[in-house]
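User: Quick sanity check before I run a bigger batch. Here is a single chain. Can you write out its predicted 3D structure?
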Amino acid sequence: MARYMETLTVERGGFRIKVPETWWEFDVRPESRDDSIRSMVNERVRQHPELAPYRDVYTGFLQKSAREAWQSGALYCGCMAESFGGDTPITGSVTVSLVGGRKQSGEPLSTDPQTIAGQLAVREAKREGDAWRKVTTVDIPGVGAAARTYGIEDVPVPNDTRTIRAVLMQTFIPVPGQEGKVALVAGSSQVLDLAESFFDVFDAVTSTFRFVE
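Assistant: Done. Predicted structure follows.
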């Protein structure tokens, strides 16, 4: 992370992770998130008046990310929204969720990284501009092996028939002592032209993930 910018350590129930200090953590609770995000954006614009033209874009992006994070069971949701002088702001987010499942027999699903990776589908792009997904395993320092997918994917919109094409990286980290449970660290951005850069950032953020007691 040092090669990108200064970092901020975030600690929540059972884990900690480091994100760039310019990122925002935001409220995902339905009863308070819209007002909280509007206030947060207004404060950001007050500090950086050059962001004023993008106020509605930032607000809409954050509110959408908060809704999706809540529906996915997120324990943490952080976001970047920056303007670098272009016509479109650069946005991305990272969420951490605790997920799990069971087989029809009732047994917990395996959290072995190789097993998870074997169950995740690879998708090849048949022509330029197609969605694609690669599957691999990675080693997270101090944590161990984890399964990972990354690519340009068509992500379903919750409670809708539409999809949104996005840069997406998902890392499935087995939770010690909890059968069938994994910590899912998911990074996403709709800025497709910067996919490789976002893969680097999401990998760097995920590499700082640690379980805590």
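Residues 153 and 202 are 15 Å apart (CA to CA).

User: Great, the batch can go ahead then.
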